[in-house]
Amino acid sequence: MRASLSARSRGEGWERPEGGLAKYRSRARAAMRFVLQRGFFGAVVSSNLTTSKVVHRRVRTVRGPFVLVANHSSHIDAPMLARCLPWAQARFLSTGVAADYFFAVWYRRLFVRVIFNAFPIDRGGSRKHAGTSRKLLRAGVPILVFPEGTRQLDGKMAEFKPGAAALAIGVGVPVVPAAIIGAHEAMPKGRSWPKKGRPPVAVVFGEPMISHEDESAVEFSTRIRAQVKSLYDEHYDEVLGRAVRDEEESA
């Protein structure tokens, strides 16, 4: 019989968040995010997109921190993931955002912190916020990572960088793989609003993954990408229809 990911051993050993990390596990902030993500944002999404989700039953058994990994092709990816993930797992989910853009101006910083429980990621060689993602995981905060590194212009999945896998291995937490289908078609890079007609977008959360003994970060990352790609391919036709796939393949 397989051990549950909610076993007590997985909830022990995490550090109590202190100082600047404490706000990432604030219950008051989580309650505010629930209202904004599931209420206000949910209404905006429902009026502009036709959404659906599939959640593997074992995702709901995950307790404590984990790394949520997904493909990335649109600005609606992070909001859709946060909105569709079961609330027990999404309550403290933290999303990494570019420090030099979102954290440089107070109103952007406020927005991403309130909506996405965001933490800053350095770009351009800076090391100012190095180690933040690891500290968050150690403090019991799950994080969202897009291993492709940036949104894909053509919507096709690029190779995954091994950073997310290395984090999961180093801290000893599971990875929840997720495939976002239709986001590129609904709002590709360069658009600031979804296309007309309430295009379909789905999020599929797969079975949580744990690294094998002696498995390298590169090997684990390759396995994670294969699972995300499998989830994407398995549900593509039911979300977008065969006609879209044929059109893309003939382009």
Could you describe the 3D structure shown?
With 251 residues, the protein is an alpha/beta fold. It has helices at 27-48, 77-84, 87-90, 99-102, 106-116, 132-138, 163-171, 183-186, 217-240, 242-250, and strands at 50-55, 67-70, 94-98, 119-121, 143-145, 175-181, 200-205. The radius of gyration is 18 Å and the shape is globular.
Question: How is the secondary structure organized here?
Answer:
Blueprint: H1 27-48, E1 50-55, E2 67-70, H2 77-84, H3 87-90, E3 94-98, H4 99-102, H5 106-116, E4 119-121, H6 132-138, E5 143-145, H7 163-171, E6 175-181, H8 183-186, E7 200-205, H9 217-240, H10 242-250
Parallel strand pairs: 1-7, 2-5, 2-6, 3-4, 3-5
Antiparallel strand pairs: 6-7
Helix pairs in contact: 7-9, 9-10
Q: Treating each run of at least 4 consecutive H or I residues as one helix, how many helices?
A: 10
Count of spatially separate domains: 1
- Fraction of residues in β-strands: 5-15%
Mean pLDDT: 87
Strand order of the largest sheet: 1-7-6-2-5-3-4
CATH topology: Glycerol-3-phosphate (1)-acyltransferase
Q: Stretches where pLDDT falls below 50 for ≥5 residues? A: 1-12
Note the run of SSEs as H and E: HEEHHEHHEHEHEHEHH
The main pleated sheet reads as: 7 strands, mixed
Work out the radius of gyration.
18 Å
